[in-house]
Amino acid sequence: MGTITFNGKEIPFDEGDNIIEAAKKAGTEIPHYCYHPGLSIVAQCRMCLVEIEGARKLATACSTPCNNGMVVSSESPTVKEAVSGVQEFLLLNHPLDCPICDQAGECSLQEYSLKHAASDCRTDLNRRTYIDIDMGPSIKKNMNRCIHCTRCIRYCNEVGDIYEMVALQRGNNTEIVTVDDKPLMTAYSGGLADVCPVGSLTTKDFRFSKRVWYLRRNDSICDGCSKGCNITVSHEKNLVFRLEPRENQEINKWWMCDEGRYGFHFAQSPSRVLAPAVKGGGSMESAQWSEAGARFNDLVVGAQSIAVVASADITNEEADLLKSSLPKAELYSYSPSVDSSSEDKALDHLIRRKDKSPNLKGLEGRGYSAFSKFNPSKFNLVVYASGGKVRPPYGIAKLSETTVGLGVFLKEEVDGFDVILPGPSWLEKEGSFTNYDEINQHFGQAIRPIGLAKPMSVVLSKYLADSVWQAG
Amino acid sequence: MLIKRETGFLQRFYLLEVMKGLFITTKNWLFSKNITIQYPEQRRKYSPLFRGQHYIKTTNGVENCTACMLCPTVCPADCIHIEAGERADKEKFPVRFEIDILRCCFCGYCEEACPKDAIKLSGIYEMADYERRVYDKNFLLIQRGSK
Ligand code: SF4
Ligand code: SF4
Ligand code: SF4
Ligand code: SF4
Ligand code: FES
Q1: Are residues A349 and A446 in the same domain?
Q2: I need a surface site. Which of A33, A346, A397, A441 has the fewest CB within 10 A?
Q3: Which residues of chain A make contact with B116, given a CB cutoff of 8 A?
Q4: Domain tally, chain B
């Protein structure tokens, strides 16, 4: 701890902070491209120049750690001139094709050009152009827009643990390529689009689907595995367009994996069951909520023995609710990749976990036993609760006399069920997941339930008779 | 607000006032120039700044529009609907481009916002139709006017 004088004001800094971080905590942004708090520091874009009293030259704020008593200025005329010069150099070769660039609206180059550069262009030289190489299934490369900050290369080396990206040539002709033009093979390739400060690396998944200024953002938790990465959900008009990682130093730092990032599409898939359905003459037929709800109640009231099988992606709140509303039922949890959380382990050096469900730990803590102990022949009625991405075990509905599905199902899975009561996926509801490390994380609702889906609390309280609730 | 006006002695007879009115009518009827024209044979000249029916400008048969979504962003009536896509000869182009013309208020903001000089408001003002028209891309690509 100590203080520096920044633009005439005393500001505190923590041990190890560079000037950018100290200024950020005091609410000032020093413009920067190559610096990213999660990556090593190379000080090569020169955008973060500041003046330090006593130093002979301007210094880069990213590579200069704070020293007690340092006097720093980011607003002096010398700094302003230098920064606007750097910005002008970066624009020398920039195509400025913002109209077709997915980054537009959240692009550092746009922002800093507006704030720190002159509005006119002093060159009529031709801009360099490249033919873009294919970077694999996840990432689209547009080399013309690159500003050579090398964040992507450092991201691959330090985060993705692959060494496949390099910078060829130098100066104006620098080109960022993959080794031998091979596609990127990492489970974290989507993060390249996050670290690239401009539109040079963007995701193919989000490409051209929405301009970013239309998007509303909500904080949430990824439901892809037991890690529970913090994410931001971007959506518009009740449609989700992308997920992005949100910083949480205790869990995912700044990152998330591709599986989680692109995994939300199931919730908007055309084959999701969006209306209640009941079994009628062999196949499932859509029904009114009142009809399906009454059928559900009849089945519960008539059953001698009930089992609740919950895929481990329902929220803790839903798990509690099932437990209290069906007091006679035996409870089981289901995760596709592990039987109990003791089998869970890290899949790689960074964040991915073996357990591909977000809340197994939470269910276990609430008395749900492992799926391997589930013996379907013991029960007249199985209530299968699905919270989203975890697909129910194949043919589960055919194992016992009657089965009710509660939550998210796909059309090809409903065979054998007696009643399906559609519920919201994790994007459409509020709740909490407990991750592998026993960290309980609350998340909010991003969009309204899709179709006729109703929250589990409404379904259970509205359609189950009071006698069922009180049976315990 | 109601303002009470005093009526004079002569005015209360009305006769003089009626005569005055008839005099003005007769003067206009007999001596002034016609202000109506024989539409549609005759047409008025509008200012080149007039904002009428939209079209999308093309260059060598390819639409100028690159689906940047600036016009739907700026449109106060929220009546432009675009879906972007990619094809071999054009990195980003509008797969679907629709203007819900009955909602349009002809402010011309779309034309002003367009970085590609693509969306234009022509001088055409005869837009009556028998049904609720939504202009689709094919219709908008027909070039109208020289603006
Ligand atoms: S990288 Fe930024 S400045 Fe460059 S074209 Fe894309 S949005 Fe525009
Ligand atoms: S592609 Fe993006 S992240 Fe990589 S060097 Fe270029 S601008 Fe930086
Ligand atoms: S003229 Fe105005 S209201 Fe009409 S489409 Fe253009 S921006 Fe929208
Ligand atoms: S502003 Fe112009 S280029 Fe952009 S979407 Fe509208 S018509 Fe197309
Ligand atoms: S951020 Fe400091 S030099 Fe790039």
Answers
A1: yes
A2: A346
A3: 99
A4: 1
Is B116 in Cβ contact with A208 (below 8 Å)? no
Residue B119 Cα, gap to closest chain A Cα (Å): 14
pTM for this model (two decimals): 0.88
In angstroms, the CA A382 to CA A370 distance is 15
Which atom of ligand 3 lies nearest, measured to the CA of B107? 2
Give me A229's structure tokens.
Answer: 């990465």
Q: Across the interface, do A208 and B70 touch by the CB < 8 Å criterion?
A: no
Question: Domain residues for A28?
Answer: 2-90
Half-sphere exposure of A221 (CA within 13 A, CB side): 26
Residues A242 and A115 in one domain: yes
- Angle in degrees, 0-180, between the axes of helices A289-302 and A456-463, rounded to the nearest 10: 70
**B38: in domain:** no
Strand partners, A307: A330, A382
A131 close to B (CB below 8 A): no
A9 and A150 in a single domain? The answer is: no
Among A268, A293, A319, the domain-final residue is A268
Looking up tokens 């689209």 gives A140
The domain in which residue B124 lies consists of 54-142
Q: Do A208 and B86 touch (CB under 8 A)?
A: yes
Per-residue confidence (pLDDT) for residue A471, from 0 to 100: 67
Tens digits of per-residue pLDDT, A313-363? Answer: 999 999 999 999 998 899 999 999 899 999 999 999 999 999 999 999 999
